[in-house]
Amino acid sequence: MTLLGARTEACMAKRATRRTTMQTTNKRRTGRKEPTVDELLAAIAKATLHIDTLETRKSDSLDFHDVAVWSVKAALEAAYRAGLAAAKEER
User: Fold this and answer.
1) Cα–Cα distance measured from residue 44 to residue 16, given in angstroms and rounded to the nearest whole number
2) Are 25 and 13 within 8 A, CB to CB?
3) CA–CA separation, 88 and 91 (whole Å)
4) Residue 78: CB partners within 8 Å, gap ≥ 6?
5) Model pTM?
6) 27-36: buried (b, 16+ CB within 10 Å) or exposed (e) per residue?
7) Domain count, the chain
8) 70, 1 in Cβ contact below 8 A?
9) What is d(CA 15, CA 10) in angstroms, rounded to the nearest whole number?
10) CA gap 56, 60 in Å, rounded
11) Taking the CA atoms of the chain, what radius of gyration do you get in angstroms?
12) C-alpha distances in angstroms, 37 versus 1, 3, 29, 42, 59?
């Protein structure tokens, strides 16, 4: 993958994590059911890492994924931001 392709994918991952965080925040504001930690992590994994589910499927080809480091970073940043947002709402 070229450097430009890597940057493009990193930007797409950031946008996806922002959407996930905004969707979670909007659900809280509208009184909808707050997502569980597992649901939030699954949404982040799907948006940033392109992993359909975090459930164990007992198959190496389904349970192990080749993921770029910038995608892992984007997923970790999204989880961190979601934690910050949740902590601010608890105050």
Assistant:
1) 8
2) no
3) 6
4) 17, 20, 21, 44, 47, 48
5) 0.64
6) eeeeeeeebe
7) 1
8) no
9) 9
10) 10
11) 14
12) 33, 33, 18, 8, 24
Per-residue pLDDT tens digits for 10-23: 666 666 666 655 55
Task: Express each pLDDT in 9-64 by its tens digit.
Answer: 666 666 666 665 555 555 556 677 888 999 999 999 999 999 999 999 999 999 99
Work out whether the CA dihedral 54, 56, 58, 63 comes out positive or negative.
Answer: positive
C-beta separation of 54 from 41 below 8 A: yes
Structure tokens at 57: 């499927």
CA distance 80 to 88: 12
**Residue range of the domain that includes 65:** 3-90
Give residue 86's identity as a one-letter amino acid code: A
